[in-house]
Amino acid sequence: MPDSCCAIGCTNRRGDKPGLCFYRIPSEKENPERRRLWICALRRASVPGEGKQWQPSKYTRLCSEHFIKALTFASTMKNFLSFTSQTAA
Ligand SMILES: [Zn+2]
């Protein structure tokens, strides 16, 4: 079975695009903090129709497109924060 991305609205599968990577969500044991952040970022708090907290399985994969977006967002925020602190000083 090919890996497919678990993000809502994302239909990327392994082999779809050149350079696309798939990442496994860290397990509770490996890195609970990062796991929580990933679940939070995915905004899949509940499974429709089931009403319970969505939990990634060990087969859940997330494609690299979301990481590129997250990194872009983080650097934008950093620039924004340094800009505002300079303005305030
Ligand atoms: Zn994706």
Automatic annotation (TrEMBL):
Protein name: THAP-type domain-containing protein
PROSITE patterns per record: ZF_THAP
Domain THAP-type: 1-89
GO MF annotation list: DNA binding; zinc ion binding
Keywords: DNA-binding, Metal-binding, Zinc, Zinc-finger
Protein species of origin: Echeneis naucrates (Live sharksucker)
SUPFAM superfamilies xref list: Glucocorticoid receptor-like (DNA-binding domain) (SSF57716)
InterPro entries: THAP_domain_protein (IPR052224), THAP_Znf (IPR006612)
